[in-house]
Amino acid sequence: MRYAAAYVLATLAGNTNPDVSTISKILGSVGIDCDNAKAQKVIDACKGKSVDQIIEEGTKKLSSLPTASAAVASTSGAAAVATTTTNAGKGATKEEPKKEEKKKEESDEEGDDMGFGLFD
Q: In the UniProt record, does the keyword GTP-binding occur (predicted)?
């Protein structure tokens, strides 16, 4: 993902034909070591495509990946079915109240890595 982002950044900056050294320079500017083979693979895959095409293709690929929230929803749905089935077998009509989980509140100080040190 970082190589594709560097390629898109170079293209948006006006470089119509980014090479490995350009991607390496962009990644190095934020402290990331560049694997030249991976950078070349991204360059080959993106060659001849507009930024819009690259983003559209990437979005399609990302939307096909499973997410953790989908897995949680499916397991909690299965638990609800099991509970309903058990209660129906006992003839019970009263449902147990759901327990609410408290979410940890994040402070502004905890996300220091998001600013990349630009605002210190």
A: no
By residue range, what is the domain housing residue 32? 2-63
Asked if the structure places residue 43 within a domain, the reply is: yes
How many distinct structural domains can be found in the chain? 1
Report yes or no on 113 lying in a domain: no
CA dist 2 and 23 (Å) reads: 9
Distance CA 8, CA 11 (A): 5
Number of H helices, E strands in the chain: 5, 0
87-117 per-position pLDDT tens digit = 555 555 555 566 665 555 544 444 444 444 4
Q: Are 35 and 43 in contact (CB under 8 A)?
A: no
Looking at residue 41, which CATH number applies to its domain?
Answer: 1.10.10.1410
* Chain CA centroid to CA 16, Å: 27
Minimal CA–CA distance to 57: which of 39, 69, 42, 76?
42
Residue with tokens 């990437």: 58
A 10 A CB-CB count for 43 gives 18
